[in-house]
Design goal:
By secondary structure, this protein is α+β, with helices and mostly antiparallel strands. Residues about 320 have low confidence and may be disordered. The structure holds one RNA strand of 77 nucleotides.
Length: about 625
RNA sequence: CGGGGCGUGGCUCAGCCUGGUAGAGCGCUCGGUUCGGGACCGAGAGGUCGGAGGUUCGAAUCCUCUCGCCCCGACCA
């Protein structure tokens, strides 16, 4: 491919509204162009990478017998109403109505009514396709003999994110591989889950990026367990903790935090009263203990301070589709720990856990923020297990400028609900799985997820089969997603340097950047054209920078920015010595050889790159 | 949703405070000289200053509304 014919405009300067590396580099390299917030066009170079990754996905899924199909992206409301998600999915679901519904609205307006347009929305853009696939399968599969079945598509999705950002990493429109499997029973769904887990390891392994499969939160409803696949990158939005001794790797939302023995068990257990002590202005939780003074104490260790959260818990009556209820509860954890509301939500089987509005909390407690405490409040209170056996703690006294001392949660709380794992695990915590290792922290970009759905959709939508006894059962489902466009962006987040992108070989738009450094020189042009043909005949993908009127320096800069793995330079200076030069974009290593040796040398360089890739790949 | 910021040629930005004929660099076109890490000279093309309304003799500039885009936040009771 001649670069003079390629649709591309590289930019020397970083566009102002690009804030993450992958977005900056992709825009500067002329790969993507923004059409609206979170909505991008993929220009030829980017689309080549995307298609290459799609092909890797297709090949690996085919090995497990998955079938590809393509569902609509505009979905009828009825299906979503059937599953209940029309009501519950929220504003990320972009809803609208077609001409029939609009005519109905107009007619009612003509009759002087003021209809609520939203109630006439009868379509949405698909953010995910459980409803559609379930509808397809229930209409086409009736017998256990047809199961299991694993179907997938690669398609443009739309989620109306409250805040799209980070270019392709969190767009509103994006390309996703979404797969769904259907099974006669749980064990078979489990088998498929692990088959897909292994397929994903192959897929991301072939991609040539560092990644980790990570145990993750499966949400309050739905699956029993789930893994996310993360591309490791410092800019990742997710925190991951990984044991340095065993295999346990998990999203911090889910990571088990070890119980911690109370380190002061030998101290005398004091009563809560007389426990008021003046702490004017002491709001930061970490300062609470340090500020404490009485006859025997002048400051306390930070793990003597507790902090308290008042929370609104929302529950849903799932099968009835409508109805929500809210309950107020409390959470007590050590002041130097972080609360984990996801764990609390799962413990309660709730839909959502949110902080109670500060004004409401202050009114309930009768104290300013910073002095609100659990003792006097008559709500169910859950306590992190790091406080099991703890006493002589401080806590807010529900009186502005006062804290209690001598707090012992299981003794002093009116509605004590027990000790549970409710805090965020931290780097350095002992791994509770093996008891030996310690947690190491990583940042990751979630690019894939395997999820056991169970019978949530098959039950609500009547997707059933007949077993060999003629009895009807709901199918057991699994779902498996890969963010295609996000993965390509994540690969860049992980692989770049000051000069530009460092494409992993398997998804580089082109593998070879052939630079003609003297396009005006007929001999150089002849050699460059011949090398291009030979490399392409040997199966390599070559972008030939044949542009005239550009200095070699300008071509080098562009080549670094585009970041194809190998750069082959043909110029009059080299040809004077009878050589062309091959440069590895990542290592900057250069080899010189006669033009006739190009195919062999490029093949050798490719093999080196692929070997290094294999060695550095995911676990 | 809350808070902040920004909209001026394709890109990065100046001009706005203090109203008076719309600018620079990069990129693009043409001519010439160059040619191994973003060359130089000369000549050009390209902008309803996001949009609407208002104030004014006169608005990119002041006022009002609106749209778009970006960031921060949804955190410590």
């Amino acid at each position: 491919m001649k670069q003079s014919r390629l649709l591309i405009q590289t930019l020397r300067e970083t566009p102002r509204d690009a804030d993450v590396v992958s977005q900056q580099l992709m825009i500067r390299a002329g790969m993507i162009q923004k059409a609206a917030a979170g909505i991008y066009s993929y220009l030829p170079l980017a689309y080549r990478s995307i298609r290459k990754f799609e092909e890797i996905v297709r090949e690996e899924l085919a090995r497990d017998g998955c079938q590809e199909l393509l569902m609509p992206s505009v979905l009828p409301a009825e299906l979503w109403q059937e599953s209940g998600r029309w009501t519950f999915y929220g504003d990320e679901l972009l809803r609208f109505c077609d001409r029939k519904a609009k005519a109905e609205i107009a007619e009612r307006r003509g009759r002087g009514e003021t209809p609520d347009e939203r109630s006439f929305y009868n379509f949405c853009l698909g953010p995910t396709h459980e409803e559609v696939i379930t509808d397809i399968v229930r209409k086409n599969v009736r017998s256990y003999k047809q199961l299991p079945m694993n179907l997938f598509q690669i398609q443009t999705k739309f989620r109306d994110e409250r805040r799209p950002r980070f270019g392709l990493m969190r767009g509103r429109e994006f390309t996703m591989k979404d797969g769904y499997s259907f099974h006669v029973d749980d064990p078979d769904a489990d088998r498929e889950y692990w088959a897909m887990f292994n397929a994903y390891k192959r897929i991301f392994g072939r991609l040539g990026v560092k990644f980790r499969p990570v145990e993750a939160d499966s949400g309050a409803i739905g699956g029993s367990f789930t893994h996310e696949f993360h591309v490791l990158a410092g800019s990742g939005e997710d925190a991951i903790l990984s044991c340095d001794a065993c295999e346990y790797t998990s999203n911090i939302e889910k990571t088990e935090a070890p119980a911690l023995p109370f380190a002061y068990a030998q101290e005398a257990v004091l009563p809560l009263k007389p426990s008021h002590f003046a702490t004017p202005g002491v709001i930061a939780m970490e300062d609470q203990a340090r500020a404490f003074k009485d006859a025997e104490h002048d400051g306390l260790p930070p793990d003597h301070a507790s902090k308290f959260y008042l929370l609104d818990v929302t529950s849903r009556i799932q099968d009835e589709v409508v109805g929500e209820s809210t309950q107020r509860i409390g959470l007590v954890i050590r002041a130097d720990h972080e609360p984990n509301f996801v764990k609390l939500r799962n413990l309660l089987g709730a839909e959502a856990v949110e902080l109670t509005a500060i004004e409401v909390a202050e009114e309930m407690a009768g104290a300013k923020s910073g002095f609100i405490g659990p003792v006097e409040l008559n709500v169910p209170i859950y306590v992190d297990r790091s406080l099991e056996g703890a006493f002589n703690l401080t806590c807010g006294a529900n009186r502005t400028d006062y804290h209690h001392f001598g707090f012992k949660p299981d003794r002093d709380l009116k509605q004590f609900q027990g000790f549970h794992d409710l805090r965020m695990a931290q780097e350095g915590d002992t791994c509770p799985r093996c008891g030996k290792g310690r947690y190491q922290a990583f940042r990751g970009i979630e690019v894939g997820q395997v999820f056991k759905l169970g019978t949530k959709y098959s039950k609500s939508m009547g997707c059933t089969f007949l077993d060999d006894q003629g009895r009807e059962h709901p199918m057991v489902m699994g779902c498996y997603g890969i963010g295609i466009t996000r993965t390509v962006a994540a690969a860049i987040e992980q692989n770049y340097d000051a000069d530009g992108i460092l494409w992993p070989w398997p998804i580089a738009p082109y593998q070879i950047h052939l630079l003609n450094l003297d396009p005006g020189n007929a001999e150089v042009a002849t050699v460059a054209d011949r090398v291009e043909r030979e490399l392409e005949a040997a199966g390599f993908e070559v972008l030939h920078d044949d542009r005239e009127g550009l200095s070699p320096g300008a071509k080098f800069k562009d080549a670094d920015l585009l970041g194809f793995p190998l750069r082959l330079m043909v110029g009059s200076k080299g040809l004077k010595d009878g050589v062309v030069e091959l440069r590895d974009r990542r290592t900057k290593a250069v080899v010189k050889f006669k033009p006739e040796g190009a195919v062999a040398e490029v093949a050798a360089a490719r093999n080196r790159i692929l070997e290094a890739l294999e060695a550095a790949g995911g676990r």
